[in-house]
Prior knowledge:
The structure is a homodimer of 578-residue chains.
Chain A: E1 3-8, E2 16-21, H1 30-41, E3 54-59, E4 73-78, E5 85-90, H2 94-100, E6 103-109, E7 118-123, E8 126-131, H3 140-151, E9 155-159, H4 162-165, E10 173-175, E11 184-186, H5 191-197, E12 200-206, H6 218-234, H7 236-245, H8 250-256, H9 278-287, E13 291-294, E14 305-309, E15 315-318, H10 322-328, H11 337-350, H12 354-366, H13 375-387, H14 390-395, H15 399-405, E16 413-414, E17 417-418, H16 428-436, H17 449-454, H18 468-485, H19 491-497, H20 499-513, H21 519-539, H22 552-555, H23 569-572
Parallel strand pairs in A: 1-6, 7-12
Antiparallel strand pairs in A: 1-2, 3-4, 3-6, 4-5, 7-8, 9-10, 9-12, 10-11, 13-14, 14-15, 16-17
Amino acid sequence: MDKILRIDVGAEGGPKATAGAMGEYAGFAGRALTSAIVSKEVPPLCHALGAENKLVIAPGMLSGTTGAMSGRISVGCKSPLTGGIKEANAGGQPSQVLARLGYGAIVLEGKPKGDDLYKVFINKDGVRIAADNSLKMLPNYDLVAKMKAEYGDKIACISIGPAGEMKMSAASIACTDMELRPTRHAGRGGVGAVMGSKGIKVIVLDDTGMQMRAPKDPEKFKEANKRFIEGLKKHPVTGQGLPAYGTNVLTNILNEVGGYPTYNFRQGRFDGAAKISGETQAETETKRGGLATHGCHRGCVIQCSGTYHDKDGHYLTKQPEYETVWAHGGNCGISDLDGIAMLDFLDDNYGLDTIEMGATIGVAMEAGLAKFGDVEAAIKLVHEVGKGTHLGRILGNGTAFTAKAFGVEHAPVVKGQAMPAYDPRAVQGVGVTYATSPMGADHTAGYAVAQNVLKVGGDVNALKPEGQVELSRNLQIATAAIDSTGMCLFIAFAVLDQPETFQALLDMLNAFYGLSLTGDGVTDLGKKVLSMERDFNARAGFTAQQDRLPRYFKMEKFAPHNVTFDVKDEDLDKVFNW
Amino acid sequence: MDKILRIDVGAEGGPKATAGAMGEYAGFAGRALTSAIVSKEVPPLCHALGAENKLVIAPGMLSGTTGAMSGRISVGCKSPLTGGIKEANAGGQPSQVLARLGYGAIVLEGKPKGDDLYKVFINKDGVRIAADNSLKMLPNYDLVAKMKAEYGDKIACISIGPAGEMKMSAASIACTDMELRPTRHAGRGGVGAVMGSKGIKVIVLDDTGMQMRAPKDPEKFKEANKRFIEGLKKHPVTGQGLPAYGTNVLTNILNEVGGYPTYNFRQGRFDGAAKISGETQAETETKRGGLATHGCHRGCVIQCSGTYHDKDGHYLTKQPEYETVWAHGGNCGISDLDGIAMLDFLDDNYGLDTIEMGATIGVAMEAGLAKFGDVEAAIKLVHEVGKGTHLGRILGNGTAFTAKAFGVEHAPVVKGQAMPAYDPRAVQGVGVTYATSPMGADHTAGYAVAQNVLKVGGDVNALKPEGQVELSRNLQIATAAIDSTGMCLFIAFAVLDQPETFQALLDMLNAFYGLSLTGDGVTDLGKKVLSMERDFNARAGFTAQQDRLPRYFKMEKFAPHNVTFDVKDEDLDKVFNW
Lengths: 578, 578
């Protein structure tokens, strides 16, 4: 990870790759690196789909090592969805493989001269780029199968589906998992559209012949990693809840506390929740010969994923995440788990963010395009997107866009990005994160659900404004740092709750890099990342006025607790006062 | 004009009208009044189509008097197109009639409880509001015919077409002309969508039994008005050019100077310009029994309009304006004058801004939805909008929206609003206005074309940045004041060039209101209006970064002069330093 691979897609004769030293970016990885490059090199007022934007793909600090949970990859750019800076990250294999190939980042820059679509192949011998128009409009599963046939099964792929090629703002970037399936997505903010605008369909990585990245102090690293794993295994969330039921364990929990946004954020409980809960899902998976407990990348010890089979016992999709089950489920009034799994597959295949698409369909249902609860209609709508019909062009550009197209007032978005699966009125801490994160509405940017609902890492009353700003601030700082390590964010449950597990993480970083990082150092890194991101957004024209929820969250009461979002504007403006 | 009529469209049992005193708004009219009410009463972060937005319709200071040219009406709200404050104004009869009925403004506020569509009738006896769902989705011409059948031919109408009912961001508000045709539109910024969101289809005005508004000093007013008219008649633009050829006299002029945006702002000259010029248009009109010289409201002495007949000698539309002929013509590579007239008619009938629609079709052509120059395809696209198909939902929401739907980078917009018929690279003064006007790209907000190209009121080199900021500043100030008087903006040619005509205007205002306004007072009014508007926008989250042209205007050279827009950002930020 001592070099940056820049691919000038606008070079004469087709994209040209050049590897160079990390230079001023030395020491940065993951989100810290993507945000540093975007913030420094991308003019904030440029067109997100134009020559001046850059797509930066970066493994984390510990990716490619033997460290557990280090398989996250960050994707950064100016977002076509929000107009601000974006880091979306994903699991799967590419982070580890890219890191072992020695690249700190791949940067796609410039603008293609023609309409050709390219594939990029990177292995120990270097980089090969070739036009391949046979890939045009291939969905991700077919694309990956083709790459496997061409390059063998030791590869990992980073790719876009038709949505990315069509430059839709809900388009994701897919990363393959251990089974070489395109199931892990850098979903948010339309990063897939930016990859599409660069004319790159797929980056195929093969680390055959490359070694694990070596720590400065191998023994200390090994020992710290062991402690780290023990910590994850003993925590009830990372050691029991997530392995057994996946993220979808949250459905019953959020429904119970009345924070489960239902019917396009109209109420906080859904009658059909039990039918689509993690418990039901795990039981269904096991019964049909799928897996209820499975990892998305080698080195995962939490194993929050799984595989979902159809009624005939054939693979349909990976275990749909809580966010996906909610977005296509309760938010659309849908309680058909097989239908939701099909929607998950379609989103993965067309290359779409499941959160954005589910929220979009909720708005489309409010607009009268389909009835709430009609799963077949929802499936049809996603196919419209994949086919790029005119309706698909609307839906594929996301929730705010669809609301505008049909004159719908209730668009649950911040900075143009759809809210995830927690209503900000019933989980006010995450509401602060939605409002203020430089990313737009994003639960992962500062997951106050932990303290508001799960009572992990603290206990702050979810229904009251008190304490939420400080909570969100600290979480946003910690998250920005974790997103830079390559670590799965789910380690946070154990790290926030168990000081010794946090220390183990620090010890891993220090042993690997020969550093003497303390908790303060992690905090400093997080603040630095957030500051770069907020600076970019300010130069892109964002002010405190964009750090707000839509006004209806302040004005319309949310059942069952009949709450509004009560954190004051002036308090929101204090989130980044540190 | 001593009262404000507020209609609460969300009242129990249907919209309820209440007339009240002008109160704190006393002395304000036209744009000054709409911007004052919007700025004070509308929360800047509200949803433009929601309960908190207000639609304010206000005649100007001299509307309803015997003063020449005083027939402009201002329409203000938070714009669904730009997200900022909006004042769009129109000619036609309603301004005079509404003023004579004694109303300083009509304010539509609240949100309808149901789906009924309402008509409002106002005469000397008061206000009657009735649900009339037979009006749903009626185009403007049919609607007005129905109102005429119902209320007689002494009326003036303010109405929306299907586009407004569908809450599209390109939707206009139509005002009827002297022939009771819905041909004069408050076009820009989606004001029609806001009227649609209030559930009001049409406001029918009948001033039978009402008097002309009486000046404080009738003799002085009469004498000043006479001097004013003489000034307009002797100036070559208002006395000759506009009457003979209408605004479309500009086609040949802008084409000649290379500032005529052609093929979606790709070049500054259009091969087909002569075929669609004002000269050709006037000749065609006269030959077919239409009118080449005609006014849009009683009291107009410039008579820049006309009537356009089809090949069979039947009325097709009013004389299409330069902006319309350009938008649907050169900008789309179309040189078929009859086709352009049909597009003008369709826009008026569906209730659409011709500038926004023409620019939108230019982008759609760039996206490959139709070929540049294909007039039949362009007509079909406008029908899609009127029918509200999915494609129509895209196009009807304007240029930026359409560009985003189809991933087109070249969207000639500022603050989301399409640029009019002057390329900002070849007419840099109007480029400063596009960039900085609180309204979004709007030529009328500071018409530097006068000094850059026509050499009226000054002479500033169109191709250079020098002097443009000061020019635009002064024009924006003057325009904000003129837009408050109810005067047609075309008086500016004579007023800017001839001190005695400016003095005549001041004398009219002073004689009417018993004031002692000087030139400085007019300037103060203009500054006050702009300050209110910019304050609203700042509270809506706008910064200097939104006072910018899209970057491609700074980077891509524009033929034939091979110029870029060279006014520096830091100079743009000085426009409102006064």
